[in-house]
Amino acid sequence: NVHSLNLSCCTGITDVSALGNVHSLNLSCCTGITDVSALGNVHSLDLTYCAGITDVSALGNVHSLILRCTGITDVSALGNVHSLNLRGCTGITDVSALGNVNS
């Protein structure tokens, strides 16, 4: 099993379903990704500038999650994430579920 994998700026990647057991995964700027439902077991996940991602409901068990400048609007499933970065996510209006996020 791969422990840490950096695929940032690999814009041709569209299918990440085989990466669900990677411990630390950087997919920042991978603009072809739209489905991250298989990544719920990743410990540390960076999806910065992955504008095609809108549904992050499967990522509630990720320990450290960076979703900077993505197109997400619903963060209700992310209340158990330990560290969450939502900078530049202008579509989010309701953060009431994030009361238990540590940082």
What's the SSE blueprint?
Elements: E1 4-6, E2 24-26, E3 44-46, E4 64-66, E5 83-85
Parallel strand pairs: 1-2, 2-3, 3-4, 4-5
What report would you give on this structure?
By secondary structure, the chain is an all-beta fold. 0% of the residues lie in helices and 15% in strands. It has no helices and five strands. The protein has strands at residues 4-6, 24-26, 44-46, 64-66, 83-85. A five-stranded parallel sheet has the order 1-2-3-4-5, with no helix packed on it. It starts with a strand and ends in an 18-residue tail after the last strand.
Name a few traits of the molecule:
mainly beta
Order of helices and strands: EEEEE
Helical segment tally? Answer: 0
Beta-strand content: 5-15%
- Helix percent reads under 10%
Distance N terminus to C terminus?
A: 29 Å
In spatial order, strands of the major sheet run 1-2-3-4-5
Class per helix and strand makeup:
mainly beta
Average per-residue pLDDT, rounded, comes to 95
Oligomer kind: single chain
Provide a compact summary of the structure:
With 103 residues, this protein is mainly beta. The chain is 0% helix and 15% strand. The relative contact order is 0.16.
